[in-house]
TrEMBL record, chain A:
<dbReference type="GO" id="GO:0055085">
    <property type="term" value="P:transmembrane transport"/>
</dbReference>
<dbReference type="InterPro" id="IPR035906">
    <property type="entry name" value="MetI-like_sf"/>
</dbReference>
<keyword id="KW-0813">Transport</keyword>
<dbReference type="GO" id="GO:0031460">
    <property type="term" value="P:glycine betaine transport"/>
</dbReference>
<feature type="transmembrane region" description="Helical">
    <location>
        <begin position="27"/>
        <end position="49"/>
    </location>
</feature>
<feature type="transmembrane region" description="Helical">
    <location>
        <begin position="56"/>
        <end position="77"/>
    </location>
</feature>
<feature type="domain" description="ABC transmembrane type-1">
    <location>
        <begin position="23"/>
        <end position="203"/>
    </location>
</feature>
<feature type="transmembrane region" description="Helical">
    <location>
        <begin position="154"/>
        <end position="173"/>
    </location>
</feature>
<protein>
    <submittedName>
        <fullName>ABC transporter permease subunit</fullName>
    </submittedName>
</protein>
From TrEMBL, chain B:
<keyword id="KW-1133">Transmembrane helix</keyword>
<dbReference type="InterPro" id="IPR051204">
    <property type="entry name" value="ABC_transp_perm/SBD"/>
</dbReference>
<feature type="transmembrane region" description="Helical">
    <location>
        <begin position="73"/>
        <end position="106"/>
    </location>
</feature>
<keyword id="KW-0813">Transport</keyword>
<keyword id="KW-0812">Transmembrane</keyword>
<dbReference type="GO" id="GO:0055085">
    <property type="term" value="P:transmembrane transport"/>
</dbReference>
<protein>
    <submittedName>
        <fullName>ABC transporter permease subunit</fullName>
    </submittedName>
</protein>
<dbReference type="Pfam" id="PF00528">
    <property type="entry name" value="BPD_transp_1"/>
</dbReference>
<feature type="transmembrane region" description="Helical">
    <location>
        <begin position="154"/>
        <end position="177"/>
    </location>
</feature>
Length: 218, 222
């Protein structure tokens, strides 16, 4: 097919505005979903971590829910919540929540009991133990959970196009319907990858700044 | 909402919906065949490569980079791009799902072989095993639990990804969802979604049993 290149800079230049708008939508949706998921997952993990049975069943339920396919989840949510941004956001929060919950619980469970005893021994109350020892020790696991959740959410947003709100997924689908316009699909896919990469690096840097003790200085 | 639910139940209760040609049974079969093809092809490439990289200890950065970036790769874009190249429907989906599954399998095989007990590896070497012998008779059996976990994750994720095929004219259970969306029959959409989710859970359950069976007895926990 002549005139239908796999990638075209001129398409990117001509449609910079559109690309920016869709990327912005994509970014906002991702950040919102991960932020909501994190505000639910971290307190929930703190709540269940000391009850072994409960923690195991929470992780089990999360694992089962995670196997529900994205297209199906969005499709199930659409009749209930209507078409548009809400069903996509709810679906994304659900998936991010599962990843974050599992990672946070793993992080909290890996805290050395001796360290907790030591903290209590120097006079920390329960709140201080939680805030300054448990959470601090779990922080690296939480950060890696956030990175995982963010990167997969970026990819997942594109599927939201089936219920009418897909950010960059919109461009992919429009390009497909528009005489199989490859340049549009590949530009959107690359923007997606770039967005995921930048968010991942930002979270990595934030995690590094927040946990200076994990860097051994000699 | 209740009318949607009623419509979904009516749809699922109609025997003809299941048994007619290109009905639900056919679509489920297609779905599973596509899954097997995708994971099989990905496994044929990724498992030996992962095992070899793990054995030689090379390419750890590569494996990590591949498995990280691949998470951000929108499968939808791959399916659509392949379609624009003339690869419509099932072939495109199998390729896209294979690309999706390969990093998971690669990471599983790599971590499994890499993480094999050093002492066991050294002991085998001390007994005069060749490098291939060490790999086949010590590292690979020790890696089985992680590799099996990777394969299970990959298969379930692929079952959950195949529905996207319907967006580019492919088969599988995604067709039910896609058709329902197109004709605004949300009961059918719901029915399709529930069916795919149920298929994922059944496959995961079957694989959990299989995973336990392939794990060498000595490595099973209690």
């Amino acid at each position: 097919m002549p005139g239908n290149p796999w990638f075209s800079w001129s398409w990117v230049a001509d449609n910079a505005d559109l690309l920016a708008t869709r990327t912005w939508q994509h970014l906002l949706l991702t950040l919102e979903a991960v932020a909501i998921a994190a505000t639910i997952a971290v307190p929930l993990a703190l709540l269940v971590v000391r009850r072994r049975r409960l923690a195991a069943s929470v992780v089990g339920v999360a694992a089962v829910l995670y196997t529900v396919p994205s297209l199906a989840l969005f499709a199930i949510l659409a009749p209930v919540l209507g078409i548009g941004r809400t069903p996509v956001l709810v679906g994304l929060v659900a998936y991010a929540l599962l990843v974050l919950l599992r990672q946070t619980l793993a992080g909290l469970q890996s805290v050395d009991p001796a360290v907790l005893d030591a903290a209590r021994g120097v006079g920390y109350g329960p709140v201080q133990v939680t805030a300054r020892v448990r959470l601090a020790a779990a922080l690296p696991a939480v950060v890696s959970g956030l990175r995982l959740a963010t990167v997969s959410t970026v990819a997942l947003v594109t599927v939201g196009v089936v219920v009418g709100y897909g950010g960059l997924g919109q461009l992919m689908f429009e390009g497909f319907r528009n005489n199989f316009h490859r340049a549009e699909i590949s530009a959107a896919a690359l923007a997606c990858l770039l967005l995921a990469f930048l968010l991942d690096v930002a979270l990595w840097a934030a995690g590094r700044a927040l946990t200076p003790w994990t860097r051994r200085t000699t | 909402m209740s009318s949607v639910l009623a419509e979904a139940l009516r749809y699922l209760n109609d025997p003809l919906v299941w048994t007619r040609p290109r009905g639900l049974l056919d679509l489920t079969g297609q779905h599973l065949v596509m899954t097997l093809a995708a994971v099989g092809a990905a496994a044929a490439l990724a498992l030996p490569l992962g095992a070899w990289l793990g054995h030689s200890g090379r390419g750890s950065g590569l494996v990590v980079a591949i498995s990280n970036t691949s998470r951000a790769l929108p499968t939808l874009a791959i399916i659509l791009l392949l379609a624009t190249a003339g690869l419509f429907g099932n072939t495109a989906t199998v390729i896209a799902a294979g690309i999706f599954a390969a990093p998971v399998l690669l990471a599983g095989a790599y971590d499994g072989v890499r993480g094999a007990d050093r002492a066991a590896r050294d002991a085998a070497r001390g007994l005069g095993y060749s490098p291939a012998g060490v790999l086949w008779r010590v590292e690979v059996p020790l890696a089985v639990p992680l590799v099996a976990a990777g394969v299970r994750t990959a298969i379930v994720q692929v079952v959950a990804t195949i529905p996207l095929a319907a967006l580019a004219g492919g088969g599988g259970l995604g067709q039910v969802i896609q058709l329902g969306m197109g004709t605004q029959r949300y009961g059918q959409v719901l029915a399709g979604g529930v069916l795919v989710a149920a298929l994922c859970l059944v496959v995961d359950g079957v694989l959990a049993v299989a995973q336990r069976m392939v794990t060498p007895r000595a490595l099973r926990d209690a």
